[in-house]
Amino acid sequence: MLKIWGRINSTNVKKVVWAAEELGLPYERIDAGRQFGVVNTPEYRALNPNGLVPTIDDDGFVLWESNAILRYLASKAGAESLYPSALHPRAEVERWLDWQTTALQTAVGPALHGLIRTPEAERNLQAIEAARQKTETLLPILEARLSESPYLVGEQFTLADLAVGCTVHLWFNLPLPRVPHPALEAWYAGLRARPASREALALPLS
After folding, report:
1. Do 73 and 133 fall within a single domain?
2. pLDDT digit string, tens, across residues 74-106
3. What are the residue boundaries of the GST C-terminal domain, all occurrences included (predicted)?
4. Is 175 contained in some domain?
5. Is the pLDDT of residue 42 over 90?
6. Are residues 30 and 112 in the same domain?
7. What is the domain count for the chain?
8. d(CA 169, CA 201)
9. Which of 50, 77, 104 is the last residue of a domain?
10. Maximal C-alpha separation, the chain
11. Residue 204 preceded by cis peptide, ω within 30
12. Fewer CB atoms < 10 Å away: N or C end of the chain?
């Protein structure tokens, strides 16, 4: 059985759990990271020398890096709808996966740490506001795309929606003022309605 190490309140772990649910893969998730520890043990570091989550073990094949795991699971399952083989749509999926990691999650992350994982008396309000403003500069990119099509890569839900959706879930549930983005909000509501997203898009954040 597929084993997934990582706490479900990690955005990167959410992506992998959601993908497994979409693909109908049986799996065991093992709490690891932050309050659960595990990641600094010699046994875990032998699997993932970075000491981060998620890590998977698929019948002896060990892999870390969440978006690499998404690609692997979808490819193994032959999930053409989630990870198309045609050159152009696959390139679009890859583009959004990279953007989620390097741009959107990087922008939102300081707000999560400041508002959810830092005691109120110790919060850096300037850093939180900077994160909010940076995120608001990126969301019009999503709004424009989702005003043209129901999903990020056209008519079909793909790994792109799954990965970006986990970060958007974080954004929409932080106690921050937000600029309205109707197409983005409708898309997010649709993601939350997917049965496979139930665990990944659970609340509250922590």
Report:
1. no
2. 999 999 999 999 999 999 999 999 999 999 999
3. 86-206
4. yes
5. yes
6. no
7. 2
8. 7
9. 77
10. 51
11. yes
12. N
